[in-house]
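Dear support,

I submitted the protein below through the web form. The confirmation email said the job was done, but the results page showed an empty box. After a refresh the structure appeared. I'm attaching both so you can tell me whether what I see now is the final result or a partial one.
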Amino acid sequence: MMTHDDLRELLERLHNKYNRPEFIEDDPVSIPHRYAARGDREIAGFLAATIAWGNRKAILKSARRMMTLMDDAPHDFVVNASQAELARLAEFVHRTFNGGDLLTFVRSLRRLEEKHGGIGRFFESVWERTGDMRQTLAAFHDEFFALDHLPRCRKHVSSVASGAACKRLNMYLRWMVRCDGRGVDFGLWETIPPSALMLPLDVHAGNMGRALGLLARRQNDWKAVEEITAALRSYDPNDPVRYDFALFGAGVDGYLK
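What the results page shows now:
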């Protein structure tokens, strides 16, 4: 087992190696990086994060296809698309996320725009009111599915109230909240501090966290997210989720071998 200082050195080295613009090209964060405007980045980022499971090349191909179906102007499409324009979303499919799911998501995003001024404004307002990320994620899940929708759509947004790790939502929040001048994350949502973020925990990050002594819990659920994020806060209380890059890099560099 590494000492605390040894692990700090490893985490810092891997963070510095992978939190770089070169990281973007092969990662789903490249999709919101196609745009300059906040609204486009918010919507492109949310939709890309939603389908970010499985093969990375397939994720990027499908996410680019989504953007093409939305005229490569995601915010304008969400706000203004006609029924005929919305209908063409029916042809989309990425694994179990299909055109009906995408149409529901666009309609829910439109409702967030009309009612709250956008998905980012909603997240920021709930955080300001609660100061609690778990409550913020739960409130988003409830609000996002407030419109009539097919029950199948709900599986595409994890529920923290059910104890899920909410990996893709936490990844999306990392993109939108963190701002460290390194060019990967955007820092758009300034109301939410990076210290409040939770690690995007999946099988890979969980295995790496256990191998490095950051996580004891065997199940990859919300309790595990809380445990590993608390461990990372001991290395950087102001920005613990920057070590998401380090856990990714540990896998690339073979630290489980």
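Response: this is the final, complete result; the empty box was a page-load delay. DSSP finds twelve helices and two strands in the chain.
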